[in-house]
Specification:
Two copies of one chain form a homodimer.
Chain A: H1 6-16, H2 23-35, H3 38-54, E1 56-57, E2 64-65, H4 71-74, E3 79-86, H5 89-97, E4 103-107, H6 125-134, E5 139-142, H7 148-161, E6 167-170, H8 186-194
Parallel strand pairs in A: 3-4, 3-5, 5-6
Antiparallel strand pairs in A: 1-2
Chain lengths: 201, 201
Amino acid sequence: MAVYEGPVQALIDELGRLPGVGPKSAQRIAFYLLKAAPEDAKRLATAIVDAKERVSWCRRCFNIAEGELCAFCRDPGRDDTLICVVEEPRDIVAVERTQEYKGRYHVLQGAISPIEGIGPDQLRIRELLLRVDGEGVQEVILATNPNIEGEATAMYLARLLKPLGLRVTRIASGLPVGGDLEYADEITLGRALEGRRTLDG
Amino acid sequence: MAVYEGPVQALIDELGRLPGVGPKSAQRIAFYLLKAAPEDAKRLATAIVDAKERVSWCRRCFNIAEGELCAFCRDPGRDDTLICVVEEPRDIVAVERTQEYKGRYHVLQGAISPIEGIGPDQLRIRELLLRVDGEGVQEVILATNPNIEGEATAMYLARLLKPLGLRVTRIASGLPVGGDLEYADEITLGRALEGRRTLDG
């Protein structure tokens, strides 16, 4: 239902299409922009156009990249024998924050999800297999999300990769550090038990 | 902390300035836009620029308007003797939804809030007084929000308007229709008692 003057309603409609922005937020953001200094609103519009024009996908790992290759693929200091497979570019940021990983990445750009109609062919799996074949990779770490889609994707990839004679690993599931046994859900606690380690000493 | 390629981080930063959009949502929206069809992203950018260029404030009531006057001020069928005073343009939409009001509006563009440094001078109060003086107004309905700032603003306006010899009214506070006494907060319930009406029959 269009209730505002044309351009305002058009703006509310466009904002309402963004993920996590409901009709109320769209309206709130639209009025914020109408009240904002013209240069502030202009900067947002320009940032959108800029990002779309200048950013695309790294042709090697499918992370976001300003040129042909992303920052991680360009970096000569990273370990070529390791590939960490993630669902989305933002997952790379999460792994980088640990400062524990110095290998390469591969972004699937999603996870297998029959409900959303996403099969292996929509993901960058073929490209991963080509990389594993050609780049002297020794270990592939499957760092897809520990949910149904991510687990299914990891299982699927493991079946494809293991016959190629390399080490295929999966990130651990368990209780978050600082977490509380009492408040853990049973699936997480089950995983924590399953993945238990022998203590030294 | 800039963690993405320049244009992507710039987009995340700009999105993060919007009201109700935290760092996580900004990132989510940015990646959504990067994955979206170029024309979809372009449409949002254009909608922002368009709204800023074509929409300004009605010079009579300070609602949003595409031309000099807003749709309500242009409408010859509305009652000139009544002005409903609201804080924001979106409040007009809420009042219109009731289909009970056929008078004019006046948008203050905010409410008195010492905490946010907003005093009467930042609001369109002077313009309201000029309208009340010149347009044959008989009743001013104060429909600012029933919260601290809105109440203070209504009290302030009532004191200015009453000496001018017109009827000044305030919208009722009370329990929402369909609401439950048990779950009402004590202030709302207090207001509901205070504003009780005699039943006919």
